[in-house]
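new request in #modeling-help
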Amino acid sequence: MLSKEQIAQRIAQEVEHGQYINLGIGIPTLVANYIPAHLDVVLQSENGLLGIGPFPKESDVDPDLINAGKQTITMLPGSAVFDSAQSFAMIRGGHVHLTILGAMEVSEHGDIANWKVPGKMVKGMGGAMDLVASAKNIIVAMQHCSKDGHSKLLPACSLPITGIRCVKKIVTDLAVLEIAPEGGFILKERAPNVTVNEIKSKTAGKLIILGEVPEMQFD
Amino acid sequence: MINKTVKNAEDAVKDIQDGATLMMGGFGLSGIPENCIAAILKRRIQNLTIISNNAGVDDFGIGLFLNQKMVKKMISSYVGENEEFERQLLQGELEVELLPQGTLAERIRAGGAGIPAFFTPAGVGTEVAEGKETREFNGKLYLMELALQADFALVKAWKGDTAGNLIFKGTARNFNPMMATAGKITIAEVEELVPAGSLDPNQIHTPGIYVARIFQGEFYEKRIEQRTVSV
């Protein structure tokens, strides 16, 4: 099965030249490290920045320059800063091409739950609901199963919903899957050395297998 | 030009009463009105309703109000950095309204712009939609959200002039400009206060019409939550 870094590496293969991209906290932020150098893309930070750059050197740390996860960052040449209303107008208005975020559960219709575990964890939804309601293309990065072994790919989400019928593609530590228009997880790729049967046994929702399933390729 | 200058934070916040609704700028700890927070803390004002994207951390920012039980209700989008907040929330000690961040930003913008309500797709099909009107436009569902206003808006800017014009820096801007428009009384604290005429009108982010009181903050800690560096 894939490490978090490898999940990020596989997702980076989905990035296209010229895209404006929003990366959620957690595994999605790692995607930035694997975007091929020859592709020009711009990373959007919901708190008001286009042009997120790498983490700063110690001497360049600036408390007025943070990302959505409150980490210190830098700005690339050609960046722009703006306020939060402008930031979400950009997101809601469909100007951000690709959103990559984590999830606790995804349903076979593309519903996503990633903001609350009732009675246990209520951190809040932040920008997630705006992002999933508006982005043209949404890719989820997550573990295939939870820490206690339950499938996170379900017929229906049991946790409070972040957005309905919005996820297009999922990359887990075991597989790459797409949501079928009629409902169901289409198995597109297997992680190296992972069998279709293992993926079947760990997917509680409807798994659709069309012919042979290739392994993920990493250069 | 009209002069909005007040002496200091204590002067700026002296008429905030128990039960007031306050908007407070900032995303995480970036762009928070540190000096007003300290002055309000000193007065131990009670039963506050705070509208702010986050709740600070346990020992800084709005977290300081929570520790002293000064807050009756929070309206925020993400409170995950503050364990005490999450605890008060889960124990029912604190009333909390969690909103999508974009909805919060737009409700505040609308509040200052004379727009009583608007429709947004964020939250459709989730518990955020409960009790709200849903309408379809061009085959897609949207929720109706109402404008938000506050008794006082406490904003933090990088530079300001005595006319109340404000310039922000980096990602410390975030909610400050919208909040400045939506407070009945807007108090702005700045790192550097300059005379009217010193700032280029083309560079102003928030025009002084929105600002009632401005002062230069005595000290800014600018605490960093996640000091991430590359080697």
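bot summary: Residues 4-12 of chain A form the longest helix (9 residues).
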